[in-house]
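Record type: monomer structure entry
Structure origin: computed from sequence
Chain ID: A
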Amino acid sequence: MQKTSLAALLLVSHFSMQLSAQELSDVQDYQEWFGGNFMLTDLIDAPLGYCLDLEGYASTTDTSQPVIVHTCKEGFWKDGTWRVNYPEQGQVYLPEYDLCLAAAALEHDAVVVLAECSDAPLQQFVFQDSGQVEVLSDSSEKFCLAVGETSRPTGANLRRQTRIANCDNTEAQYTHWILPAEDAVYTDFATFDAGSTAPRVAGGGAPGGMGAPGGMGAPAAGGGPPGGNLFTGACSPCHAPTANGIQTEFAPKLTGQEDWYLTRQMNNFAQGLRGGNEGERWATQMRHHAATFAAPQIASFVSHIRSLEDVPAPVTIEGDISRGEEFYVSTCAACHGFDAMGNEVLNSPRLAGMSDWYTVIQLNKYRVGMRGNHPDDALGMQMAIFAKALPDEQSVLDVTAYINTLAPE
């Protein structure tokens, strides 16, 4: 099998190609990644409610710190998507990190942490019909998963410490939870019962919109700080402060890409032309990010990216370069140019020097109808026709390997 990046391996897994045992241990099967928000029933002082979360955001997430609750984020997020009764009955599991929720101690006000999943008693919970999540023990004193009585702001969001509390002597607003469910998003606040502080469970299917990520806060539609600061808060946790991308966040390099193309794709995400297909976890996540920003803010992102140094992305894909050149010349060059630097007149973006693992993912999405399938995305539909001229996954790796040879020095 050709050498590929972690992201490409995950994509290959999605297309049912055979992986080695080592590759299977290195990446999680996409189909196994699901869950939902683990949400406090009472909103208390947070209009969007509180959900189990971790300190940090995206690449800065710190799994060694005690678990917190944070203003809920709609959709599926690596630090806020949980499963219950997995991998064993009574456990609470965080799929992205392969860790389980645990009480640090069986005592009032003990913190809640993440630990390697095991049969340790402090990882075993009983999910009561009342909404209490009780630590399984033989003690006559019952202890439950709870949140702290005080909140602290982080930008436009709120957070509280999670803790273990006496079930009988702690107010219900701090100890009653809505458990996560596969393909369910709880924070659909348009469906609130009149006069109630408890949200209904929104139906399954594709995730809905989102709150502001990781304490950064969603800027108001009409303004926000200057482009650099806004980019730092909204984009850099995934795309890096340099905008050179972070592969483990499935966030591609942005520097060097044309302004018109970045603007168009942000608008495509915001308008729902991209993301939202079943299985498109990361594109859907980006769709929810983009939907929170108005045109002036998108322009500020693009302006800030233009000010950053364009450093060619590292090469992570290998393939048959000669075969890839044949495919590129016959299928791609007319629009993207023989130098793969793009052509605005033909609405074709730059490919050379960009994230090659991302190119592989997007070409395969076009080929199987996960991109370019929206009736209002005429340019995407056009690209899908050309991508389907590539006969198999190997041809995608080959043409990408050839594009890597065209990267500007």
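Annotation 1: Residues 321-336 form the longest helix (16 residues).
Annotation 2: Residues 293 and 367 are 30 Å apart (CA to CA).
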